[in-house]
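A quick aside before the break. I want you to see a complete sequence-to-structure record at least once, exactly as it would be stored in a machine-readable document. Don't worry about memorizing anything.
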Amino acid sequence: MNLREKVRLIIYRFRERGLEIFLIPDEDQWLIPEGPDAQHKAEVLMQQDKLIALDPVSKADGETEQAWAVEGDWHDIPSLKAMLYEDAVALSEKLSEMEQGTFVAIKEAFKKVMPHQYKLLKELKEVLVDRNLTRNI
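That is the input. The structure line, written in tokens, reads:
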């Protein structure tokens, strides 16, 4: 696996405040966690409808950013932990950042993330609304 191939891992959950997104602090801003692009491991989650592949977004510098979304607390998701622990030495700093993260309501997350990441959260919200409407039919 090439450690330069990374994706944003949008971890979400539903609580009494509604949809919440897990963000980690980075100096004066909040970020969506980043992890290695472990496509072979992600395919199992995609087949089980547990992982949502979101459309790539363009950052201000022209680079493209890919994101996946998965429901649950990151401590409880063994497959996510496996992706993050793939190269423990290289990712140990990322794991310590994850410990400082917190879930925030979706409305608050929209305000805290980078402008291009707003599009990722908006798409996730639309996908989840569609899924919930389908389940309630």
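Two observations worth writing down. The chain has one domain: 6-135. The beta strands are 6-15, 18-26, 29-31, 34-36, 51-58, 64-71, 102-105. We'll return to this after the break.
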